[in-house]
Amino acid sequence: MIQGILDIQSNIEPSFDNFVVGKNVDLIYQIQQLKLGQMVYIWGEKGSGKTHLLKAIIHSFDGRYIDAQKEQVPNFQGEHPHLVGIDNIQSLDRESQEHLFYLINEWRESQIQSNAFCLLMTGDHSPFGLSHLREDLRNRLSWDQIWKLEHLSEHDLMNLFIERASNKGMSCSPQTVLWLFKNYASNASSMMDLLAALDNYTLSKHRQLSIPLIKEFLEHKDDA
């Protein structure tokens, strides 16, 4: 399987409309019914769509997005927006863990008050699988809703790739997509990043998307 990070990534704005639900019907329904005073922890493997879903929620409810891989969780000290979304909590450093600990306490104390807010978090394991986090923080993650975000099936991923390619004016056969699955990637995140890069490559080469062209592109990326 080809390894490495593509330089050009998908620039589609995450939303509920372009999130492919797959087996996550119940989760999406609950998220869309979100009310002040609720806390939700969503976990799943890399590429399952956690960041897309969290950003879609933040956009819909005009909340604050924090990526723990890139920034610290601030000490809100009671001055927080009505929705806080923290992505990749498996990457929290010691100070951010302490701030999240107090933020969850604030959420609990304000649940039925006028200053109630929503707290959403994502991670790559269930709460008790986050061995890097302090125990009292892991315990607090289970105080409200916990959901596992399931990967899309191969059938759903193939249809997604073909649909998004068509939206870009790219003709893509099922055989081509199947080859990609067997030789490159098998999750929505990496497939959409690859599609964005291939879109630019096909335009620069004035050629249609095909297996030979994809092989050429991937070899070029490996040599770069």
UniProtKB/TrEMBL annotation:
Annotated Hda lid domain residues: 156-218
Q: InterPro entries in the record, alphabetically?
A: Hda_lid, P-loop_NTPase
Which domain of life, per UniProt? Bacteria
GO BP term (any one): DNA replication initiation
Q: Tell me the Pfam families matching this sequence.
A: Hda_lid (PF22688)
Q: Could you give one GO CC term from the UniProt record?
A: plasma membrane
Q: Name one GO molecular function term.
A: DNA replication origin binding
Protein name (Swiss-Prot/TrEMBL): Hda lid domain-containing protein
Originating species: Basilea psittacipulmonis DSM 24701
Lineage from the top down?
Bacteria, Pseudomonadati, Pseudomonadota, Betaproteobacteria, Burkholderiales
